[in-house]
């Protein structure tokens, strides 16, 4: 045997010894890992089974306890909202931090193209006359048609009342507490707002319109005429006259009827009617000339009781007398409610 063969034989023996040593060392480890893996799989399988059984049992329990289910839902929703607030507070973008995708559902607006030709003509004219966006006016026109159909009232009458009462300002309020589009006395008719969630609904355009239409219908049914109903509506039932309120509403309605019929009207902003001047006697002596009334007389450059300058010639050289202005609609409502 040569020296090379002897060395090869020794190397082979060493490799066999090393392999046997490795097997002796790592075999227990492999067996342990294998057994641990099988055990973990069994535990996970059993845990998932137990978890599934727990979910089923909890679902059955909550199905019979609606109050407990609602409490858990509210707590979960509150936790999610807190997490959302914490995440958005650090965002400098206000539109992102205060984003509210559901805001579109609160908007009182409609696409003008969805209206009929008659409704669209009225909505366009009202939008231009009262300087209101066409989309909310279109929605109010739609609602006036629907409410008028249910109450058996002409929708143009409803829109005319809105125009005279609030000029299509849904947040208008009079000194005596009449609120909204149709200037409903909220404290008097608060029970009518119960179906809309409370008296604050008076400032919701659609709720105010529906309540106002109901009040107007009751007033017309009570008096048997539109003129009488308007007199009751404005709060002048116990007064000799309504101060021209019904005439203003019916005049506005006539404009709307002509617009709906295809007529073209000159667009003018609503103006106060000029008060007629009495005839002046020829004798200008102090003994026959009437005494001037106290307060502003409404001549050019002098504020009138109606809140704007009247189209009256300059008569500063004359001492003119005229009757006191009629009570406003708000004052008539206050007087009627006090009675």
From TrEMBL:
Which CDD domains has this protein been placed in?
LT-like
What segment(s) does the record annotate as region Disordered?
276-339
InterPro entries from the entry? Lysozyme-like_dom_sf, Transglycosylase_SLT_dom_1
The residue ranges of the Transglycosylase SLT domain are 146-225
Q: Highest taxon of the source?
A: Bacteria
The Low complexity compositionally biased stretches are 317-329
Where in the sequence does UniProt note compositional bias of the Basic and acidic residues kind? Answer: 330-339
UniProt similarity note:
Belongs to the transglycosylase Slt family.
How is this protein named in the record? Lytic transglycosylase domain-containing protein
Please report the organism this UniProt entry assigns to the protein: Aquariibacter lacus
The opening ranks of the lineage are: Bacteria, Pseudomonadati, Pseudomonadota, Betaproteobacteria, Burkholderiales
């Amino acid at each position: 045997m040569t020296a090379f063969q002897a060395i090869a034989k020794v190397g082979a023996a060493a490799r066999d010894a090393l392999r046997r040593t490795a097997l002796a060392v790592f075999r227990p480890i492999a067996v342990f890992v294998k057994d641990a893996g099988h055990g973990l799989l069994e535990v996970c399988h059993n845990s998932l089974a137990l978890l599934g059984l727990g979910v089923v049992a909890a679902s059955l329990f909550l199905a019979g306890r609606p109050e407990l289910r609602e409490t858990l839902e509210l707590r979960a929703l509150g936790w999610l909202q807190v997490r959302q607030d914490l995440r958005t507070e650090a965002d400098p973008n206000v539109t992102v931090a205060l984003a509210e995708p559901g805001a579109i559902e609160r908007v009182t607006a409609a696409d003008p193209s969805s209206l009929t030709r008659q409704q669209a003509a009225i909505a366009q004219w009202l939008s231009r006359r009262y300087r209101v966006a066409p989309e909310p006016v279109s929605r109010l026109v739609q609602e006036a048609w629907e409410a008028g159909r249910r109450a058996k009232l002409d929708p143009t009458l409803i829109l005319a009342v809105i125009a005279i009462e609030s000029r299509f300002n849904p947040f208008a309020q009079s000194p005596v507490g009449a609120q909204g589009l149709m200037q409903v006395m909220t404290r008097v008719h608060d029970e009518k707002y119960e179906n809309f969630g409370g008296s604050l609904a008076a400032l919701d355009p659609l709720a105010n319109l529906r309540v106002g239409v109901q009040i107007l219908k009751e007033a017309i049914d009570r008096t048997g005429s539109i003129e009488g109903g308007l007199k009751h509506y404005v709060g002048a039932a116990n007064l000799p006259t309504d101060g021209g309120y019904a005439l203003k509403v019916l005049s506005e309605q006539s404009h709307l009827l002509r617009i709906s019929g295809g007529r073209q009207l000159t667009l003018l902003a609503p103006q106060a009617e000029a008060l007629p001047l009495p005839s002046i006697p020829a004798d200008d002596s102090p003994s026959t000339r009437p005494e001037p009334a106290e307060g502003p007389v409404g001549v050019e450059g002098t504020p009138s009781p109606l809140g704007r300058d009247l189209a009256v010639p300059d008569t500063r050289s004359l001492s003119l007398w005229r009757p006191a202005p009629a009570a406003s609609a708000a004052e008539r409502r206050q007087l009627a409610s006090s009675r």
